[in-house]
Amino acid sequence: MPSLDALVFFMLAGLALGSAGVVAFSKNIIHSALALLGTFMGVAGMYVTLSADFLAATQVLVYVGGTLTLILFAVMLTARIEQMKISNPHQGLLVGIGLVAVALLVLGKVAATTAWPINERPSNPSTAKLGHAFLGEFLLPFEIGSVVLLAAMIGSVVLARRAVRREWEKE
Amino acid sequence: MQIGLIHYLTVAAVLFGLGLLTVMTRKNAVGILLGVELILNAAALNFIAFEHFVVGDVSGQVFAVFIIVLAASEAAIALAIVLMVFRNVRSIMADRLTALKG
User: I want to staple B47 with a disulfide (CB 3.0 to 4.6 A). Which of A113, B12, B32, B60 is the partner?
Assistant: First the structure.
């Protein structure tokens, strides 16, 4: 009988990896995009078990509320979803699986053979420490991050609007 | 059974592998974007796992917050680019986009 935290971990891992499998192998792009929700939720649960509680809330808010909505917009504005044909085709699946297997072998070897200096510590809430880090040591990256978000917002608006021909552009 | 660092690393590695597979095999541009999101999540999970088990500071969480910020802006830009491509080519299958100037 596994302990409770092991049980929780395996449920979260199953949710995340099963949804990721649907993302990777589903033939319908809508199913892939919606399955990403399960992956995000599973990873957010793992953040909670790793005592990153603020990050788990951020993951749910930003990824599920923002990024996933954007991706669903992209799917519905571009794929012709009224035709229920294969909207998410594969190409070269066997080659891809082979290459990924090689990459996973390398990763597994590194992760298993390196002697990580593990020291166990209890799970404590870390939101206050994170806030102090952001407004102290990491203040400049924090501000640069907000500038990046502003630039991305302006850039996507400029890219996605319909081009309006102005007077001086007409030949 | 004790859940340790290696379990989280395994989950992140499999997540990364599935994302890599998605990026390599999909033809739909939005599908490729989904794979990139999987890879970014795997990287953030690794940061948090190492922070909890090895480093013991909040620097890993700072990195993960920046990963989330950059993923959000990347999704917004990618949505705009995909819309532009669809408007011009009437398709977002990556193998149909062969012209550099059109």
Answer: B60
